[in-house]
C-alpha cells in the first residue's frame, strides 16, 4: 500500500525550515528597499511558490497514482503538496499576526476556524467525488480550485 506520510513530511519539514529563514530575509530586504517602513504584505512573497507547488503536486500525485507509474513520481507530487501547504500556511499566519498585532489571537482563531470548516466539509464530498471521477480528474478539480483561490490571493 502506498504510504504518503514520509514524502509529505519531507515536503512540510524542508519547506518550513527554508521558509522560516527566507521569510525574514525577504522582509528585511523589502523593508530596507522601502525606507525602513515594514508592512505585513512583505511576509507574503513566499506564497507565490506555495501557490504554484500545491496544484503542481496535486496533478503529479494524482495522475501518477491513477496511471500506476513508478512509486517515486507520486512521492515527488506528495512532497510538493506538503511544501505548498506549509509555504502558504506560514505566510498567512505571519501576515495575520503582523496585520492584527493587538488582536492577533482572535484573528488567528478566525483563520483556524475557516480552515477547520474546510477540513470538516471536504470529507463529506471527497469519497464520492473520487469514486465518480478517479484520482486524476478529482485532483485536477482541486488543483484548479487551488489556482483560482491562490493566484488572486
TrEMBL record:
Q: Which organism is it from?
A: Pleurotus ostreatus
Any Gene Ontology CC annotation: membrane
List, alphabetically, the Gene3D superfamilies matched: MFS general substrate transporter like domains
Where this protein primarily resides, as one coarse class? membrane
- Is the keyword RNA-binding assigned to this protein? no
User: What keywords are annotated for this sequence in UniProt?
Assistant: Membrane, Transmembrane, Transmembrane helix
**Is Membrane found in the keyword set?**
yes
Membrane topology, record value: Multi-pass membrane protein
Instruction: Name its cellular compartments.
Output: Membrane
GO molecular function annotations of the record: transmembrane transporter activity
Q: Which InterPro entries match?
A: MFS_trans_sf (IPR036259)
Name the record gives this protein = Uncharacterized protein
Amino acid at each position: 500500500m502506498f504510504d504518503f506520510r514520509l514524502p509529505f513530511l519531507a515536503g512540510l519539514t524542508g519547506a518550513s525550515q527554508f521558509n522560516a529563514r527566507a521569510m525574514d530575509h525577504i522582509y528585511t530586504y523589502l523593508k530596507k528597499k522601502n525606507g525602513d517602513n515594514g508592512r505585513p504584505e512583505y511576509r507574503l512573497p513566499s506564497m507565490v511558490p506555495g501557490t504554484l507547488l500545491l496544484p503542481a503536486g496535486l496533478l503529479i500525485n494524482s495522475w501518477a497514482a491513477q496511471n500506476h507509474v513508478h512509486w517515486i513520481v507520486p512521492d515527488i507530487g506528495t512532497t510538493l503538496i506538503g511544501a505548498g501547504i506549509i509555504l502558504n500556511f506560514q505566510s498567512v499566519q505571519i501576515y495575520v499576526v503582523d496585520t492584527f498585532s493587538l488582536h492577533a489571537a482572535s484573528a488567528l482563531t478566525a483563520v483556524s476556524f475557516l480552515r477547520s470548516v474546510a477540513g470538516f466539509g471536504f470529507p463529506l464530498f471527497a469519497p464520492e467525488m473520487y469514486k465518480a471521477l478517479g484520482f486524476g480528474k478529482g485532483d485536477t478539480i482541486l488543483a484548479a480550485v487551488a489556482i483560482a483561490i491562490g493566484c488572486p490571493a
